[in-house]
Amino acid sequence: MLKKRSQIMKSGKRENYGLLYQTSRCHPFVKWAGGKSQLIPQIVRLIPSKLGRYFEPFLGGGAVFCYIASYDRNAFLSDTNMDLINAYKVIRNHVEDLITTLKYYQIEYNKSPTKYYYQLRDRTNSLNNIESAARFITLNKTCYNGLYRVNKHGLFNVPIGRYKNPLICDMDNLRKMSVLLRQPGSYLGVSDYKKILLEKATKGDFIYLDPPFHPISSTANFTSYTDNGFTFEDQKELAVIFKELTRRECKILLSNSDTNEIRKLYSNFSHLTEVASVNRSINSVGSKRIGHKELLIKNYEL
């Protein structure tokens, strides 16, 4: 049976975690399609030596942000996924309450994984922001392949995964992420990438763009992390904005699939484009998780 947060909080122990807040190294708290953790060494090599403010408008798991934040830069972080941004905000503002709730979810899940998973998946009403964030993280940690996907009605629809002992509450990492998100002068919100970039980005800012990838085949189109897709028309619009931000003298690094269509859109930057080899951990067929190629397109010389 699912309990309300008020019941959970009464049983939670509050301790002095001051020492745990003194370090800022962390990793993504969710698994995300196209996540960049495995590409960090290659991306780090392409980051400009001189940085202004940092923009990441397709935030997802935020692997690049976790690295950039070590430079103590003002960060503008956004995504159109409201559940994702709510989780980030709760981590920033209420991390200890979130940890208490996640601990409870961990205990209940371990009692009866399948039963509790589907109870939690089907529970969409009467949740406050902390409960919604805990639900979001728990489902991501326990669903099939760690995948987050919604249907056309915006409802999470992934079945339970095959895990023996999934770590639902990674306390240390959540606290470290909270520290990074509380840097003064930073922004975190739900926003279309066009709005925040065209309104805020100026000369010298560093922008990392990791949009939903252009499909490499007719069956590979998977963009359902919100109930709005990302079509090739959207890809073309993104390329136009890439050029506008280049005109403004922003420094941009963009990731996308290695397809002829994407190469044509950014043909003016072909001399600044690299190919990276990656694995796709969310593919349901193990043999299809390896051997993928991504383009890393930048508009600046190192």
Summary keywords:
302 residues; single chain; 7-stranded mixed β-sheet
For the record, the count of structural domains works out to 1
What is the count of helical runs? 10
Question: If you consult CATH, what is the topology?
Answer: Rossmann fold
With strands numbered from the N-terminus, the spatial order across the biggest sheet is 3-2-1-4-5-7-6
The major β-sheet equals: 7 strands, mixed
The CATH architecture classification is 3-Layer(aba) Sandwich
Give a verbal description of the structure:
With 302 residues, the protein is of the alpha/beta class. It is 38% helix and 12% strand. It has one domain (29-158, 171-298): Vaccinia Virus protein VP39 (Rossmann fold, 3-Layer(aba) Sandwich), CATH 3.40.50.150. It has helices spanning 5-11, 40-46, 63-68, 82-111, 113-122, 129-142, 171-181, 193-200, 232-247, 260-265, and strands at residues 54-56, 75-79, 187-190, 206-209, 251-257, 273-278, 292-298. α3 (63-68) links the parallel β1 (54-56) and β2. The relative contact order is 0.16.
